[in-house]
Amino acid sequence: MFDWIQNMADWFVYGVLGLAKEQHLAEALNFFIYDTTKILILLFVVIFLMGIVNSYFPIDKVKNYLSRNKLYGIEYLMASLFGVVTPFCSCSSVPLFIGFVRGGIPLGVTFSFLITSPLVNEVAIGLFVGLFGIKTTIIYVVSGVLLGTISGAILQKLKLEPLLTPWVKEVLVSAQREQDVFQAEKQTFKQRLPIIWAEVQKILKGIIPYVLIGIAIGGLMHGYIPEGFFEQYMDEDNLFAVPIATILAVPMYSNASGILPVVQVLVAKGIPLGTAIAFMMGVVGLSLPEAMLLKKVMTLKLIAIFFGVVTLCIIVSGYLFNFIL
Amino acid sequence: MTKVIKILGTGCPKCQSMTGVVKGVVLENNLDATIEKVEDIMEIMNYSVLSTPALVIDNVITIKGRIPSKSEVLELLT
Question: Nearest by CB to A92, which of B51, B67, B69?
Answer without folding.
Answer: B51
